[in-house]
């Protein structure tokens, strides 16, 4: 009788500790919950549920190895404990031990072939292992058993997106959000998918929904910033990247995003500081070295820009943006042959890189290789006949070759696309001047000066025409205006 009494007391005490532990667990007070589970296990070390719940609490604290030990204890007591196999697999997955996780989920499925969580979690492990198509089979099986799992619909969407099946991915994300409208990750992933589809404003709405639900969601702030950059709302994007950095001052992507926004806003010094923050944490970040180089180009620090690009290319000799930025810096230094070589490296990897083709054409023209320059411009115009800069570049080359009528056609094309393209008005004027059509040339220079009253070249060219027309007083006035503007420009430089 005395033994029965002690046993009843132990059971009562066990249940008290266990109930207290579960309440603390539900309140998110995992450390206190663990202490209570330990108290229950002192009374009954063979209770599988106490070991299992302690493992869940340890997982909540991110102590994954200790959590796995608890699940192993539960499985020693009951090798058929499906929830413990799933929980152990989940912790292994978080530790990137994918094969072991797959084995755990596989065991759970062997024990209970109709366990939707086991199928869904194994699918997630397969995604992490890169076996996307196999993962989809598992997600489908999970949803056959439980079609109302928002998490599995979400994971299916992620897998579909990995396979480039955007429409199906969108259906999955929408289904997840129907089932769980407060699913922050689903709003975030749907927004990212909408960006890839070019639906930027819809994407921004998704990120805003995510932030209503979780105002400190760094991913949502970052992705909203990316979306805002796509529609040239750079000030607003900067606010988003700053929000991310308030949440996590070491967020590399946010520093890069902030740097890019600052470049577009013309604040190049601050942009360089952003890229320095990235490089302080990771001096092997190829992208950061390249973007820093790009910002330095804008600051006129061309040699430093080249050094940055070279650092990138030491680490990744095929990195296209570094070759491109190096080419730009070399052009600014007048090292056109070297710039051409850089653009050729870009075009080896990306033959349709329009900016590289254009800059290569301009560099070739600068060293008198006009026929090769024309080839570059024609390649661009074969892709897009509405490129005003390229029509202008082609016109300039043709003018240098003495092909004035063809050059005139090109400048007219450029102005048809962009009627306020000041250099095109100026070049059209000089071409008409070379053709002896002085009155029309004068009208072009006047148009250029209407758009840009301080454009010294247009004042100078207008002066030449006026002299040819015998309008000497006007010639002197324009010539003096051109010289004053050039002196001012040199002083500023």
UniProtKB/TrEMBL annotation:
Q: Which InterPro entries match?
A: TPR-like_helical_dom_sf, TPR_2, TPR_rpt, Ycf3/AcsC/BcsC/TPR_MFPF
**Extent of the TPR repeats:** 14-47, 48-81, 82-115, 116-149, 150-183, 184-217, 218-251, 252-285, 286-319, 320-353, 354-387, 388-421, 422-455
Q: Where is the signal peptide?
A: none
Keyword field: Repeat, TPR repeat
Q: What's this protein's name? A: Tetratricopeptide repeat protein
